[in-house]
Amino acid sequence: MQCQECGVRPATLHFTKIVNGEKTEFHICESCAREKGELIPGTAGGFSIHSLLSGLLDLEGAGKGKAAAATNAQGLHCEKCGMTYSQFSKLGRFGCSSCYKYFDNALDPLFRRVHGSTSHVGKLPKRAGAQIVFKRQIDELKQELQQSIVEEEFETAAQLRDQIRKLEKEMAQ
Amino acid sequence: MSSLRFTEQALSTWMRCGGSHSEIVISSRMRIARNLEHLPFPLLASAEQAEEALSQLAPVFESSPAPGLGTFELVKLDELDELDKKVLVEKHLISPNLANDSRGGAVILNEDESVSIMINEEDHLRIQCLFPGLQVKEAWERASAIDDIFEDAVNYAFDDRRGYLTSCPTNVGTGLRASVMVHLPALVMTQQINRILTAVNQVGLTVRGIYGEGSEAVGNIFQISNQITLGQTESEIIENLHGVVTQIIEHERNARERLLAESPLRITDRIKRSYGILSFAAVMELKESAQRLSDLRLGVDLGILENPSISVLNELNVKTQPGFLQKMFGDEMTSTERDMYRAKLLRETLGSQH
Ligand SMILES: [Zn+2]
Ligand SMILES: [Zn+2]
Question: Distance between CA B206 and CA A12 in Å, rounded?
């Protein structure tokens, strides 16, 4: 297969980019990839997703309605490590785990482009994971509690409230 | 020259047994990316912070090694010479990034080199497990067990919604890169490879050529790996990869059978010609040797050649790389000298098997 960019060298990188659920295929050689700075997940050295990420963000800025959102995102910065969103978009790398929190507003579209999804469904770390399991249980019970209050089932509501308190206590330990 | 044990042998011990589908699948690799909660990622870490990450992570495996994996040894990158680093990269035991760009970088290797734990690469921790043949589930289980051991001892950067937090947004979520290295000469020869690669892309996998300068797909060896790390479970990722690779194996096998049935003379001539050239040539470029070693590998599977063994061919794939040649024949060499030594190595290895 020939590289779709230069048409000369054989294509050695083959990947699909998912943008809002739409798939685009790429078949390019490594030197064209390096030139274009294309998104190549899982490759080390040489070239990377850096310039593409900034490309993506420019793209967003170019869309009329999204211009404001993109400008806002550029103003974000991580209070823990000091990285700004525009640095992140140039480097294509987060500076620390808190960047995820400070850039949160801008990340959903990015993750949807790269992964076609925005949230994790895989493995949970055992210790931190236990907290998450508690939290999810409590959230569910709270919803049930709301429901039972609306339906004036106060006995059930009282039981649910006790359960929630018990879980919250366990979680705190 | 240093005496680093991991750079003396071209073939890691784990590669010596074939694993399933070893006539097509060379190896399965699982890589898990993790970070420590309270430190900035290696990109922004100061020398002290890199040292702190190392001092938190390194002792974990000294105190509680995983059962059945032998002893582990810590190797600090700044204590290695350039050549040893190059050989570790050629053996896929460390990444080029860890070799060239890391600060406070280190790798923990087990005896048979099937486990490689990189510290202060792009992420604080990268657990890599290698298995021969098609063994993605086995590789995942081992990597995940090692992940559990670390998780017991340190606090990972993890977010309820985003999962395991990584330096690069392409790894976030599971932090998992599962890949399989396959040898697909018949699909290349019969020009079906494009169709196959396109199909592979449509199910969220990436294919790249490996070996050879500039990662061209010389030697018909391809690496197939998952592209998506967020929004899929580890088992979904692994089953998807396993399923696709199983289909590719089927296509390659059919293509091999058809080649042999439809043009037996042409294929036999091609393979024996390559054997002859590798056994007698005086100068051999990397690209040519990779292509001709691919012919030999195919010849062994088709029963056209009795020798060399797949294990010798795996070994030659590593030994013919620039770093390893230099390691064997002397530190400084020009590219012409390297091609000469490569030819010598091939003559001596293959010539003795006539
Ligand atoms: Zn090109
Ligand atoms: Zn940060």
Answer: 11
Interface predicted TM-score of the whole assembly (ipTM), two decimals: 0.85
Tokens coding B143? 């990597």
User: Coil, strand, or helix at residue B86?
Assistant: helix
Q: What is the pLDDT of residues A6-16, one digit of tens each?
A: 777 777 777 66
User: Starting at the edge strand that comes first in sequence, how are the strands of the sheet with B125-132 ordered?
Assistant: A22-28, A13-19, B205-209, B221-226, B176-183, B25-34, B125-132, B115-119, B106-110, B72-76
pLDDT in tens, B196-233: 888 888 888 988 876 433 334 678 999 999 999 999 99
Which chain A residues touch B170 with a CB distance below 8 Å? 39, 41-42, 49, 114
CA–centroid distance, residue B161 to ligand 2 (Å): 17
Tokens (6 digits) for B168: 């690069």
| Terminal CA-CA length for chain B | 33
- A 46-85 → B contacts, CB under 8 A: 48-49, 53, 80-81, 83
With a cut of 80, say whether residue A47 has pLDDT above it.
no
The contacts of residue A143 (CB under 8 Å, 6+ apart) are: none
pTM metric for this prediction: 0.79
* Average confidence score pLDDT of chain B: 89
- Here the tokens at position B327 are 């390691």
- State both tokens at A106: 């801008």
Structural contact between residues B113 and B91, judged by C-beta atoms closer than 8 angstroms: yes
- The span from the CA of B285 to the CA of B283, in Å, is 7
Helix (H, G, I), strand (E, B) or coil at A25: strand
Q: How far apart are CA B211 and CA B216, in angstroms?
A: 7
- Residues less than 5 Å from ion ligand 2, measured at CB: A 78, 80-81, 83, 95-96, 98-99
What does each C-alpha distance from B66 to B60, B70, B106, B149 come to in angstroms?
Answer: 10, 8, 19, 8
